[in-house]
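Attaching the record inline, Q. Sequence:
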Amino acid sequence: MRYTITGDNLQFVNVQLEEKEVLQSVAGGMAYMTGNMVMEAKMAGGILRGLGRTLSGASLFLVEYRSKGGTGIVGLAGSAPGKIVDLDIGRGKWIVQKTGYLGSQATVDLKIAFQKKLGSVFFGGEGFVLQELSGEGIAFIAACGDFNIVDLK
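Structure, as predicted:
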């Protein structure tokens, strides 16, 4: 998988897939794709994982993209003006805001995460439910405005 992130405050992730590669995204994340791309909605992880994703701001189903007949391109975009960042999930687990996940390689696992402290729920501004990204591969997250990525040890 090769990709570029283009744009300034209305960014897109342009993902180039070869025939055996798979990209997954939330429903509604695709902005454009070449004609040789095949989309398929799947409830990755079963009904309970799907319901957990729904509570975390993602969709019950994840959409898988595959190229058929050569190299294909998929463009993913956030739902509002802002930035998109690529994360190497293999370097460790990531917790992102409720609607932060945009898409990833199929080897990345998207789960529901919860705030652990009651004060954070009421005064942190993110609510009780968050998204957890784990596994291996590259994931794309989107947010309104700019990012401040902090490495918590």
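The domain at 2-143 is CATH 3.60.160.10 (Double-stranded beta-helix). Helices lie at 46-55, 118-123.

More tomorrow.
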